[in-house]
Write a structure and sequence with these properties.
Distance between the termini: 74 Å
Number of helices: 6
Strand content: 5-15%
Strand order of the largest sheet: 3-5-4
Shape: elongated
Number of domains: 2
């Protein structure tokens, strides 16, 4: 009986070892190598550098709170905010008193910061994304912030609007999603335009 079990167990163990090496090591390494050759920036996490130093990723949002010279990101519910290790939504329902209070607080803060009537504050200034890591804002929310950023930077509004237009991406393949502005890339372009590296 023992030899019968051993005869069945040995091929199963060999298959497990071979498949682990093939699918757990060789295949991921081959795909990583292929990606490094074909799309090296994306394979490395779409890292964004300034003067050779990594300042973020174009795929993960970050906070610019308390820095009025920068465009503000949408709110984040991921950990303490934009924590890629705690990516998640708040899981609060649409009638949750906590969510409604947070939205009212964000509306008041965004309206005060940008000098916008509270009723006109863009929705993405009020609501976090599903992942809590969205690096984009809508062109509407970016437009709401132009006057403040131009004033804080000492740039003309038209120069800041041109930068917003330059960093606005259209719908994916022409019809998927909505137009969007990558906040990190826009803020780095603002640093270059105003000669700062804050």
């Amino acid at each position: 009986m023992f030899t019968s079990v051993l005869r069945q167990l040995t091929p199963a163990l060999r298959a497990m070892v071979v498949l682990t090496v093939l699918l757990g090591l060789a295949y991921p390494l081959a795909l990583t190598g292929f990606a490094q050759v074909v799309v090296p920036g994306r394979a490395d996490g779409s890292l964004v550098k300034r003067d050779g130093v990594v300042v973020g990723s174009s795929l993960i949002g970050q906070s610019f709170a308390d820095q009025p010279q920068y465009f503000q990101s949408r709110p984040s519910a991921a950990g303490d905010g934009y924590d890629p290790l705690a990516s998640s939504a708040s899981n609060l329902g649409p009638e949750s008193p906590d969510l409604l209070a947070a939205i009212n607080e964000r509306r008041t803060a965004a309206a005060a910061l940008d000098g916008t009537p509270p009723a006109d504050v863009a929705p993405d200034a009020l609501e976090a994304s599903g992942s809590g890591l969205d690096p984009h804002i809508s062109p509407r929310y970016a437009g709401q912030q132009v006057d403040r950023v131009a004033r804080e930077r000492g740039l003309s509004e038209s120069a800041v609007r041109r930068l917003v237009e330059k960093y606005t991406s259209g719908r994916t393949i022409g019809f998927l999603g909505e137009p969007r502005v990558n906040v990190l890339l826009l803020n780095l372009a603002l640093d270059r335009a105003s000669g700062t590296a804050d």
